[in-house]
Amino acid sequence: MAKILIPIFLISILSISTIACSPCENEVLEEIPSPNGTLRAIVFQRECGATVGSNRQVSLLPQAQRLSNAGGNVLILDSDHGRGSLDTEVTWTDNDHLLIRYDPRARVFDSNASVHGVEVTYDEHGSHGS
Q: What is the 3-state secondary structure (H, E, C) of the chain?
């Protein structure tokens, strides 16, 4: 009985660990601290293998918090198969307001108007990378 249970147990552990490991990886491109230094906007790209194209993502985090291996909590966009640019400009206008400029031809998957009490404004005409 023990000879049967041990292989089943090992296969179960390997299956769980494979599912728990994300095939994605974040590459930080820029970090922009808030004027008072308590928060930071992080611009990054998320690589998930051949099935996911180039993208830009923005997360807003407390200064001491590490960027997790997850998608952006502020903005997620891609170039819409090369139609738009991935150029993304992030600027703090004050401690409670973040301005993000990006190419209007980019395809937006997610955008949030407020994160961690910071109001986010989007300018689709700001950065064209032409």
A: CHHHHHHHHHHHHHHHHHHHCCCCEEEEEEEEECCCCCEEEEEEEEECCCCCCCEEEEEEEECCCCCCCCCCCCEEEECCCCCCCCCEEEEEEECCEEEEEECCCCEEEEECCEECCEEEEEECCCCCCC
